[in-house]
Amino acid sequence: MFRTAELGRKVSRTEFEQLTEPLRTELLELQQRLLGADFPVIVLFAGVDGAGKSESINLINEWMDPRWIVTRAYGPASDEERERPEFWRYWRDLPPCGRVGLFLSSWYSRPFRDRAVGHADEAAFDKALERVAAFERTLADDGALILKFWMHLGKEAQRQRFKALEKDPLQSWRVTPADWENWGRYDAFIAAAERLLQRTSVGYAPWQIVEGQDHRYRSLTILTTLRDAIRRHLEERAVRRVVGHAVALAEEEAAPADPRNPSPMDTDAPGHAPLMAASGEVDRLLSEVRRGLPSILDRLPTDLVLDKETYAVRLAHEQGRLNLLMREARTRQVSTVLVFEGWDAAGKGGAIRRLTQALDARDYQVIPVAAPSDEEKAHHYLWRFWRHLSRAGRVLIFDRSWYGRVLVERVEGFAQPREWRRAYAEIRDFEEQLVEHGIVLAKFWMHITRDEQLSRFKARETIPYKRWKLTSEDWRNREKWDQYEDAINDMIERTSTSRLPWTLVEAGDKHHARVKVLTTVCEALEARLGVHINNEPPRKTHADKEKSKKKEG
Amino acid sequence: MFRTAELGRKVSRTEFEQLTEPLRTELLELQQRLLGADFPVIVLFAGVDGAGKSESINLINEWMDPRWIVTRAYGPASDEERERPEFWRYWRDLPPCGRVGLFLSSWYSRPFRDRAVGHADEAAFDKALERVAAFERTLADDGALILKFWMHLGKEAQRQRFKALEKDPLQSWRVTPADWENWGRYDAFIAAAERLLQRTSVGYAPWQIVEGQDHRYRSLTILTTLRDAIRRHLEERAVRRVVGHAVALAEEEAAPADPRNPSPMDTDAPGHAPLMAASGEVDRLLSEVRRGLPSILDRLPTDLVLDKETYAVRLAHEQGRLNLLMREARTRQVSTVLVFEGWDAAGKGGAIRRLTQALDARDYQVIPVAAPSDEEKAHHYLWRFWRHLSRAGRVLIFDRSWYGRVLVERVEGFAQPREWRRAYAEIRDFEEQLVEHGIVLAKFWMHITRDEQLSRFKARETIPYKRWKLTSEDWRNREKWDQYEDAINDMIERTSTSRLPWTLVEAGDKHHARVKVLTTVCEALEARLGVHINNEPPRKTHADKEKSKKKEG
């Protein structure tokens, strides 16, 4: 694989100097155009030590406008980083649209090192690379231009490079004993590198192997590749915008596909997105077919009710149980992420407050998901959720969430069909990372019927301190009930797995709903912590009743 | 001081229930108005344990719209927090305009605890409180509404409260052995609390002592205080906007003050800002007086030149020296913050690149300061610089900086006179915190004459890959040369202290300028690290020349 990168290719000083000025000019002009573009550029440098990774990054910073470039390299994780899933540190450093991010090794470095030194077997290596590929895929799907340079040196060339550096008093610091130790493992490194390149070199994020020996040859290779890639991507995005409009028109009259086999929808790649997107008709048909069948939501019972007295006792009991469990979780540094979605007026806020009443204000944070800020808009839609992830042992409650992508954004057309369709897989991948990191995740859909919503809206209008909750948007959303119902059914079908289950909450009765939410959270915590708190509701004594009344106040 | 908070005041359940609905309605309505306001609300809860701090925070979250409230409490600092100045964690949690931030103890808790348990003497306590006061002052000056509640319980009442909690199986976890230990120190706590309240209760951030025994009395006190304060502040800000316009008009015809004694300007408090702000005429006069006298900038020699050969040798030498020092700093976790300001085309970028060439891309970050994002605009102007502070051992280079407040924002009128005048003190305080934390700080003003700038602008127009650097804004800025000169002189006079020195760089000759910057950074590092790297330029051998040529390429 690396044969062609050991040819000893060179560029003479004269040639290099002749090319410098036109190339710099082109790069700077492209960067100006890039500033107004709707995508970021992500450039990754990995490879053999001494093959010019840092030098290349310095050169890009020198030749282009450094104001719009961020450079990131990673040492050992900080405790704030260790307390979140591994990719949190990469998400938080992603450049916004119009900017260039230069990354040194970064998301490849741990899997690669683990494999090269033998800490991970091939299966573990492949699994880690799959995660990396999914990460790059989701960025590319969102429009990012991803370039990856593998800087190569032959074994002997690396030895000579180290020797040369060691002789130069100003450069000798660059060579450490660890470098020589790694040199001893050269063959194992190369074997791991080959697998890495094979598994993660894909159309939307290709690896380019760069012969690193001659700094002029290397620099020209990287800079012209970068130039061509930015230019091509700018053009492709422009074409895509035009095609996108055409496809949107075509969708209106497209032929229906198999309505009961929606799975291909969430695996469309950017390469064939325009072809796959022509399925507005499919959605409509699917929706009609479903209207005839009972959906997941339709099957929910609507008669689950808790009388006031039982509610008071159960509430106090579950809150006490939750409190004990959360303190245990805090001690053991286990975090919890709770997601609340539901119809307007289904009682998300009330359920959340019954949870937070049982918690210490030090330990939880409610994140109300409203319109994104301009910084958030300039990133992948998941970026703003990654940035909220809290430190270990905390409870993070999302009042609405990333599922907005497949609900409101789908129904209102803020996201293109190809965008919300691939979101199911992106969301599963995101949540998988939370769960793998040991975080307790629970997702609630608060369900009420259309009639129940109407009577709640009307009630809200009469209570002064609840009136603010009701906006004209609520009424507008209500008109799109059927479309939302389809979106909700799809969401639950595609994002409820045994590890990432949705809890459907029959919220027609608020008492029942609140207790069900509390109980579900407690059970998830018990399962995660391997402890069991007495689950039997206490007998109703007079003292109990008084106590629960107090807590209600 | 706390006598009046031990009166055992109570509110009956009936009274409380009667007041609930109107009060909630008022709070929610105010919160709606607040969303469109140009200031944040910062509410701090401190005081005796068991007096209802967490409960009050929960209640506010319950009665108001929790979507626009952030709640923050602080445990031990994370390593990312320890690697920055103490206030970094508070800056990053500040709510944006229109939102409410609820803080548990937070910036008071370390000074208070240190004093109460005897780790700090009175002088150290006072110093810590001064820092706190300066922090709150700068937020209040920026428009923030700050409310501080000291929740009080008498010694016996606290004991009874703990006992009662311990008896309740659902609440007993709230009482820890540490609580009882603290109870034993009750008198020392109260003594420290009295001093704390006296020193930090000021008009713009008053403490309100709240009797904590009865939860209904306590809740009503806090919520009505909050309601009244938000209402009053909304009105005051509205009035201030009107008055602000009037003052701006008045400034045009105001009488001059003593032109050689500008010091009162940077101590105006928000209370009398409109009166102090009428000094547009003062500025003009001052500027004329100065025009007759040589200013700091005028006194800079313009004939400092390094010939190409000496430059090449000195550059290579200083870069090598810098590299050694920075690696030592990295090892010892000493961070460096470098600030570059200067005339357009004075060579900031070139000087920065000569620095970064000597560094490892893993260790530095260049922060180009452009227009703020909407999240940044919704915060204090220093917020966006605090958020950039890097982890320990890194080099952070600001290409333009917080000094924009007293340069471009002053000259262009983006900041009101009272805003940029108080910025001198705010900036000194910010930089003091960096230096106290052990960070090496160097600030460079890159100076060229007006004629030199003109010839550089003209040269830029002819070099294709430099043309993008020259914008119409550069030409516009150039027309305001005199106003900028005044602003620069003021800036240097007021923000150059022995601990926070400005380095004026005679940048008419780029070679001289780059070497001076490198040497200054090296010297600052040597002083901080207590090491000395051979400072003599090496003799010019042929090999040296070749080497430095290579580095230039």
From TrEMBL, chains A, B:
Domain of life: Bacteria
Name assigned to this protein: Polyphosphate--AMP phosphotransferase
Biased composition (Basic and acidic residues): 537-553
Biological source species: Pararhodospirillum oryzae
Alphabetized UniProt keyword annotations: Transferase
Residues in coiled coil: none
InterPro entries: P-loop_NTPase, PPK2-related
Residues annotated as domain Polyphosphate kinase-2-related: 12-234, 306-527
Region called Disordered, residue ranges: 533-553
Listed PANTHER family: POLYPHOSPHATE:AMP PHOSPHOTRANSFERASE, POLYPHOSPHATE:AMP PHOSPHOTRANSFERASE-RELATED
Keyword match Transferase: yes
Recorded GO MF terms: transferase activity
